[in-house]
Design goal:
Layout: H1 2-7, H2 10-13, E1 24-29, H3 36-53, H4 58-73, E2 123-128, H5 133-140, H6 144-161, E3 164-167, H7 176-188, E4 205-206, H8 213-216, H9 232-235
Parallel strand pairs: 1-2, 2-3
Antiparallel strand pairs: 3-4
Length: 236
């Protein structure tokens, strides 16, 4: 019932007039890892259905979708004080138009599973309460491979939507300021120089454009009692 009532509010927050100025955050909690994928998939389907029903001109929506592809393809890992993905000031940082010089760039093609669900809106996936990982180990006998299994499923989902990923914890102050700065970068075009971070399992940060199937496959190495393509609900 709660899900249906919240779904009905989407028409008031996302319409044809504000579509180009919209960024979406999909939020789930690591405190309940068994619900993560169902929640992300359910709300992404609701969002996709709503966007498909909007009366957007075909060529206009295609422009929004292509801008997300460009953002993903042009991502540059920040180094030496540079700002990845923030090389110019755009009228609308969420959907930057290509410059004349950029039109001639040779961009690498996307991976087979990247932006397969391109809805024309930037998406950020936020996993809250990452401090619950230690509790899951103690109370539910979760092991390192379980957290790798969860992360690779989430990252594959993010690739499908071209989404960024944050693991956050208010209790442990993990990635809260980073998320705030990244929102300012994506929405307003403010400089942002933080690279992707996947070393600490409770503070993962993956900006849109950095990840790939090859990078995700590194997580498979620790999985012994499960396989990467096992059903999420059967393992978690």
């Amino acid at each position: 019932m709660l899900f249906r009532s919240h779904r009905g509010l989407l028409k008031f927050s996302l319409c044809e007039e504000n579509f180009e100025h919209t960024l979406v955050m999909l939020v789930a909690s690591i405190n309940n890892p068994w619900d993560i994928m169902e929640s992300l998939q359910r709300w992404s389907e609701v969002l996709s259905t709503h966007v498909d029903r909007l009366r957007l001109q075909t060529e206009v929506r295609r422009e929004y979708e292509e801008s997300l592809v460009r953002h993903f393809q042009e991502y540059v890992e920040p180094e030496d004080g540079t700002t990845g993905g923030a090389r110019r000031v755009h009228a609308n940082p969420l959907h930057p138009a290509p410059s004349k010089t950029e039109e001639d760039k040779v961009l690498l093609p996307l991976g087979e599973t990247t932006l397969t669900h391109n809805i024309g809106i930037p998406v950020i996936v936020v996993l809250t309460k990452s401090d619950a990982i230690s509790t899951l180990e103690k109370e539910h006998d979760y092991r390192e491979e379980h957290f790798d299994f969860i992360q690779q499923h989430i990252r594959k989902f993010c690739l499908n939507y071209g989404a960024s990923l944050f693991y956050t914890s208010v209790k442990e102050d993990k990635n809260i300021d980073l998320l705030y700065k990244y929102l300012g970068h994506r929405i307003y075009g403010f400089p942002f120089d933080a690279p992707a971070f996947v070393v600490e399992r409770d503070a993962v940060f993956i900006p849109a454009g950095w990840d790939s199937e090859k990078k995700i496959s590194i997580l498979y190495e620790n999985m012994t009692s499960m396989k990467p393509d096992d059903q999420f609900e059967e393992v978690i």
